[in-house]
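Friendly challenge for the regulars: who can give me the structure tokens for this chain first? No prize, just bragging rights.
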Amino acid sequence: MNATITDQLEKFSGPVQRAGHAAERAYKMDKAGTPHTAIAAILTDSSERLGNNHQYTAQGIPTLINLYDDCLSGTPIPAKTANAVITDQQENQGRGSDPLLA
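First reply, four minutes later:
Bragging rights claimed.
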């Protein structure tokens, strides 16, 4: 699909889809040998254009790559787990138990 058409279609996507697209693109750039500094610069520039001004670093890119790699095999944070942690945090005013120790 033409990149311009893809960009236009993504304007109608939600944040979940856009996050997935961004992670996939970062993953593909990494696999193509793009330096993490370049990927971080692209994300930082995009964030600035979107009015969020988030600063991305080369050190943070491996986390994005690893997350996408895990998503190739399944869902790294199942809904059941996320809902349990959120409920625990809300019930304990953010001082919830460590779900990994339960």
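Residues 77-102 form one domain. DSSP finds five helices and no strands in the chain. Your move, everyone else.
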